[in-house]
Design brief:
Length: about 375
Amino acid sequence: MHLFIQTSLSVLCCATLLAVSTQQAIGQAQEKKLPCDELTEKALAKTSPETVQSITAFTPAKVLQRKDPRYPSLAARDGKEGWVKISYVIDTEGKVKDPVVVDNGGSSRFKKAAMSAIKEWQYTPAIKNGKAVEQCHHSIQIDFSLLGQHGASRKFIVMYRKASQAMDEGDLAKAEKIVKRMKEKSGGNRYENAWLWALDASIATETGDLRRELNSIDKALASSKTHEDEYKTFKDDYLASLYRRKFALHLEFNEFSTVLYTSRQIKTLENGDDIIAPLLPYIQKVEDFIASEDNIVVNRTLSESGRDFYYLARSKFGFSDINGKLDAVEVRCDSHREKFTVATDHIWSIPESWGDCQVLIEGKEGTEFKLVEVSKV
């Protein structure tokens, strides 16, 4: 049984966070930590990590000025909505540095608009031990929304139902073709986008493509509306099911840091305590495994951009079984970052004083490899 999309114009108001005009967009800082990029000239510097002093005081950067992105006129004319997730550095002068698009949904025009605006944002710099420092753990999702958008168009609903019917009849090839055509339309409003990616996740489930399923769930959640009960894209029970599946998939991939992060997201949902209750034994097992002497082995693949972002659960890691080409790995922590060339015979050890860390791996698109989080013992 596939999900039914209501057609009434009163089903959904397409404002996200705040209603905005067709020439404006709004950004909202998210709790999720995403990586930040480094200057090109440092990309292949092969050096060893330096010992750093313990953090005695750290004050994160604070917003001084944010310019709203300009809503792309063609996207506004066509009634298209979307979002862009951007990772960036705030330098010692409070300026945005090295922004990079981590993910996006809807028209590709939104990426350019978001990147242009974010470069003009201004912050007070982060302070560590009384001195201004770069802040790496900073990310944002910028939402592009139009006034007067309601629910799904009849054309979208017809195609959605055809794809759902094909799945019910076991004709996955036909369902794939329909969904492909829907994607090629460069996105509709965010209501349609959310249901499209949820449908794509369902197809991925049936075909056994778990990575695609996880990516599609992430896009569905990013596209959905949750700001007002009356205008929610997904009902609470279905939203909970998406997060439970997201939790299970990260667990399947041994992405333990993200498993724990997803569990915290689940707790914020309606009836979050009840939803998380059956997952508590798995959370405990993850925490026990992180603290154990066993290595955490994670299979990864570089995306079309030649990049992969990974959130570390431990302070030691290395690489093995590289099928393709990896160029550089950048370690990004609360108030420190370093970049190195990749070597399969090297283990990176991160001082605990650097705080929570994540890595950005760069190389040739499609390169497959194993990232190994090494135990402290």
